[in-house]
Amino acid sequence: FASLAVLIGAAGVALGAPWADPAVGLLITAAILTVLWQTAREVWRRLMDAVDPALVDQAEAALGATPGVLAVGDVRLRWIGHSLRAECDVVVDPASTVVHAHQIAVDAEHSLLHALPRLTGAVVHPDPEPRPGEDHHAALAGHR
How far, CA to CA in Å, does 14 sit from each of 4, 23, 24, 85, 102? Predict the structure, then answer.
């Protein structure tokens, strides 16, 4: 891009437009500043653990499509270098055995690994579906 711009600027000057060279210089400067701004913004987002909302939507869809998952709770994604890690809550049948709930969580993690290419692992927490008046995390309420 820069080489072509320099040629255009030189051609403009040669054709009697002395303003062409500085104008092309300003265009190159604007292009460099635009790329710098976009790169700096992306680096800042990564530093602040920002993840594209579309990735969260993909994760929620993959979890929701997993057999045995009745609902999807919190989904948290975090960049660690160039890879993603996830922490997710899924709702399962309260009559499930521990072994069955664990298998659903493993299946949900497997679904996530296929849905999100840069995901290297996930912690999937199965919660029993609450009945009216039940709060399976009541003991933690004072700590959140």
Answer: 15, 14, 14, 57, 75
**Low-confidence spans in the chain with pLDDT less than 50:** none
Spell out the residues 6+ positions from residue 68 whose beta carbon is closer than 8 angstroms to its own: 92, 93, 96, 100, 103, 104, 107
Query: What three-state secondary structure class fits 133?
Result: coil
| Fold category of 53-132 in CATH | Alpha-Beta Plaits (3.30.70)
Closest residue by Cα to residue 9 from 18, 1, 31, 33: 18
Instruction: Identify the pLDDT of residue 1.
Output: 58
Q: How far is 23 from 15, CA to CA, in rounded Å?
A: 15
Order the strands of the 119-128 sheet from edge to edge.
71-80, 83-92, 119-128
